[in-house]
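Hey L., structure's done. Input below.
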Amino acid sequence: MTIHKMQNLNRAAIEYASTVIVPGMTLVELRRLCEAYMLSRQILIKS
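Output:
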């Protein structure tokens, strides 16, 4: 994966995180959601 693709993936993950964060959510929950999002997107970017 190129640096540009990784930057785009990180940017998309940050935007995703801003839509799923709710009051009372723990960092562990947020990390799991973001990790799952990035892994699913990484498969799409590689192809």
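The chain has a mean pLDDT of 88. The first helix runs from residue 3 to 20.

-- N.
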